[in-house]
């Protein structure tokens, strides 16, 4: 049965969204776009394999490349969610900076 | 008998203690960092790998590559050059604190280039080169995307 790239993408996106939880919106566009390209390439590999244009060894090696690419993309997305948290905390601290400095009577933040 | 009470913190009123605690807490985390800073050397290094890879695939797309148990001199030279560059970048990434994500990405990319060597031996017909190229573009692109996000201090705008 041929792989449907759209169905494959939906499965990957659903799994990623669940894993990223509330942080998913921060990276959704980027990750979905990249995972879509990878899903298309996996479908192409399968199509080539089904027509005999690609050997089993070539298919395995190409799928390994696509798997690595997916991992690298999701790691980037993970890093970006960490940056978003970092930016939010630093913004919150920045907001209280003037209040704290004023209350204490000297600049500490 | 009246017990003499010593009050070592007599000068400190509760409100002052609270203010001090708050100050210390805030001083300790005025600016939090959970991930490494942007590294221009890594940015340039990965970009150089990306350029070399694109050049290699442009050539490969013209000719394709028949199966052969050994790599050509040019193929071996390219893979050696990239392996050395990635090893240097891995060392650089590992030297920076809180840089585990980038280190893991570089390790995966290095593994992909090793797989590329095997794939070239197995043969890469012209019409299959684009999917291989896409995997490398997505990989180097993702590493650079994260590095540039570090520079901006947040994820890219949607």
H and E order of chain B: HHHHH
Radius of gyration of chain B: 27 Å
How far apart are the termini of chain B?
A: 75 Å
- In percent, how helical is the residue content of chain A? over 70%
Name the average pLDDT of chain A. Answer: 91
Tell me, briefly, the overall form of chain B.
elongated
Please give a structural write-up.
- The complex is a heterodimer of chains A (109) and B (158).
- Chain A is mostly helical and 109 residues long.
- Chain A has helices spanning 5-20, 24-50, 56-104.
- In chain A, helix 1 (5-20) runs antiparallel to helix 2 and helix 2 (24-50) packs antiparallel against helix 3.
- The radius of gyration of chain A is 22 Å and the shape is rod-shaped.
- The termini of chain A are far apart.
- The model of chain A has no long low-confidence stretch (mean pLDDT 91).
- Chain B has 158 residues and is mainly alpha-helical.
- Chain B is built from 5 helices and no strands.
- In chain B, helix 2 packs antiparallel against helix 3 and helix 4 (100-122) runs antiparallel to helix 5.
- Chain B is elongated and about 60 Å long.
- The chains are: A mainly alpha (109), B mainly alpha (158).
- At the A-B interface, helix 2 and helix 3 of A face helix 1, helix 4 and helix 5 of B.
Outline the secondary-structure elements.
The complex is a heterodimer of chains A (109) and B (158).
Chain A: H1 5-20, H2 24-50, H3 56-104
Helix pairs in contact in A: 1-2, 2-3
Chain B: H1 14-28, H2 40-63, H3 73-95, H4 100-122, H5 126-152
Entry keywords:
heterodimer, A: rod-shaped, B: 158 residues, mainly alpha
Give a brief outline of the structure.
The complex is a heterodimer of chains A (109) and B (158). By secondary structure, chain A is mainly α. In chain A, 84% of the residues lie in helices and 0% in strands.
């Amino acid at each position: 049965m041929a792989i449907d790239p759209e169905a494959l993408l939906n499965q990957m996106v659903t799994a990623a969204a669940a894993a990223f939880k509330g942080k998913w919106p921060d990276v959704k566009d980027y990750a979905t776009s990249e995972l879509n390209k990878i899903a298309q390439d996996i479908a192409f590999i399968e199509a080539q394999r089904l027509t005999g244009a690609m050997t089993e060894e070539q298919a395995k090696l190409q799928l390994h490349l696509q798997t690595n690419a997916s991992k690298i993309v999701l790691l980037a997305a993970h890093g970006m969610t960490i940056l978003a948290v970092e930016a939010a905390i630093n913004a919150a601290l920045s907001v209280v900076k003037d209040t704290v400095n004023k209350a204490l009577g000297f600049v500490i933040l | 008998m009246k017990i003499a009470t010593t009050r070592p913190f007599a000068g400190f009123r509760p409100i002052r203690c609270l203010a001090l605690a708050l100050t210390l807490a805030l001083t300790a985390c005025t600016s939090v960092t959970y991930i490494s800073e942007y590294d221009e050397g890594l940015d340039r290094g990965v970009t150089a790998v990306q350029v070399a890879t694109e050049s290699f695939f442009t050539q490969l797309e013209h000719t394709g590559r028949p199966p052969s148990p050994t790599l050509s001199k040019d193929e071996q030279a390219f893979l050696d050059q990239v392996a050395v560059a990635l090893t240097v970048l891995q060392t650089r990434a590992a030297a920076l604190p809180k840089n585990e994500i980038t280190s893991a990405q570089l390790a995966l990319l290095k593994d992909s280039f090793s797989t590329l060597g095997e794939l070239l031996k197995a043969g890469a017909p012209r019409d299959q080169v684009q999917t291989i190229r896409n995997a490398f573009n997505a990989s180097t692109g993702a590493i650079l995307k994260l590095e540039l996000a570090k520079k901006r201090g947040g994820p890219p705008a949607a």
